[in-house]
Amino acid sequence: MTTAPPRIRARWLRAPALTRIFAAIRAAGGEARVAGGAVRNAIMGLPGTEVDLATTLSPEAVTRACESAGLSVHPTGIDHGTVTVVSDHTPYEVTTLRHDIETDGRRARVKFTDDWQADAQRRDFTMNALYCDEAGKIYDFTDGYRDSLRKRIIFVGTPSQRIREDYLRILRFFRFHARFGSGTPDAAGLAACVRQRRQLAKLSAERIRQEMFKLLAAPGAVPTLKLMARLGILRELLPHTEEWRVIGRLPPDAVLRLAALAADPAAMKERWRLSNSDARRLADLAALVPPTPGLRPREQRIVLYQIGAAAWRDLVQLAWARSRASLDDPTWRRLLKLPDRWQAPSLPVTGKDLIAAGLAPGPGMGEALRRLEDWWVASDFKPDRDALMARLTT
Q1: Which domains does the chain have, with CATH numbers?
Q2: Cβ–Cβ contacts within 10 Å for residue 79, how many?
Q3: What angle do CA 316, 321, 322 make, to 5 degrees?
Q4: What whole-number distance in Å separates Cα of residue 381 and Cα of residue 367?
Q5: What is 239-263 written as a DSSP string?
Q6: d(CA 206, CA 178)
Q7: pLDDT tens for each residue of 296-311
Q8: E strands of the chain, at which residues?
Q9: pTM value?
C-alpha cells in the first residue's frame, strides 16, 4: 500500500447526508468507504464528482440498514451489487465489494466479497481504485495515489487482461488521459489498446458515444485524438478528418467538435445512435450556410430569424474556428453574441387574423401568410399588425 497523506479534506466528505449513510452501515456491522472518482479528484485538487460508496455489506443488508435509518433505497443495479440510497434528497450509489468471476469483453458476472483489495484489483485504472473512510483516510492497494499525483493513467494489473474484461476500457484509457493525464501515455497500456483495437467493434454504439462525447469535451481532446488517429484506433470508431486546428479552436462541446471530426456528420446519427437533438445539430452544421462578419446587420437578423439562436451560435462558432481570425477577434465575437442583443420577433399576424379578414382556410391562406412573412422579413421586421393586414388587402 502506497504511503499517502493521513486523510482527505473535502467538503463533500462532511456532508450530513453522507454521514447518515456511513452511520447506518456502521450500525449494521458493516464498513463503507468512498470509492473511485471522488477520492481521485480530491487528491488531484479537481472539482468534486459524484460520491459513490463501496461496502462490505450485501445489497440486501445495505437496504435494510438504510431503510431502518429512515433513508430511501432503490435497487438501481442490484445484479452488480449496487443500490442508490437517497439521503437528504441526495442520491448516493452504494456498491457491495465484488470480484469478477466471468467476463466477455462487454459485461461481467460478479461475486460479492468483503475483501477491499480484491475489489480494487478488478477496477480499471489505479487512480480509480482508491478509497477513503469517513475520516478521510486513504486506502490505496494499487499505487493509485502516486499515479494520481503524477497524472498517469495506469491499468490495474495487466493491461491486456483489464481490456479483455471490458473492451470499453480502450476508450476509457484515452478519455482519462485526455481528462486527467499528462505527458506521454503509459507505454504498456497504450500497446495493449493498440493490439486489441479491433475489439471495439463488439461494443454497442451507445457505449462508444458516451465515452467519445466525454473525450471530445476533455481538456486534452486534440492531442489525444491525434494519437488515436495515428495508432489506427480512431478509424475503428468513425471515418474522420484531421481538422485538428479547428477542433482545438472550438469550445469543449462534443457535438461541435464531432462536426469537425466526422468525415460524414450525417452518418453519425446511426453510427453512434445520437439523440434526435444532437443529430439535428450535426445536420444543421453540415447543411446550413454559416453566417460571417461580412453580412450586413439586416442580413444577419434575417439569417438569425430563419435558423434560430441555437443553430446561429453553433454555425458561427464552427465558421470562426475554421477561419483565419484569432479567437479574440471582436467582429466574430460580436457576430456570435447577436442573439444576446437581438431577439427574433414573432410574425404579428396569424391564420386566425386572415380568416377574420375573409380568407378561407386552405393552401391559399397558407400562401398568403407566407407572402406576408416574406415582406415583413424583407422590411427588417418593422411592419406591425396593421401594416401587414393593410398589405393583405392591397
Answers
A1: 1-150 (3.30.460.10), 288-341 (no CATH), 351-392 (no CATH)
A2: 10
A3: 100
A4: 19
A5: -B---HHHHHHS-S-HHHHHHHHBS
A6: 20
A7: 999 999 999 999 999 9
A8: 32-35, 52-55, 72-77, 82-87, 90-96, 98-103, 108-112, 130-132, 138-140
A9: 0.89
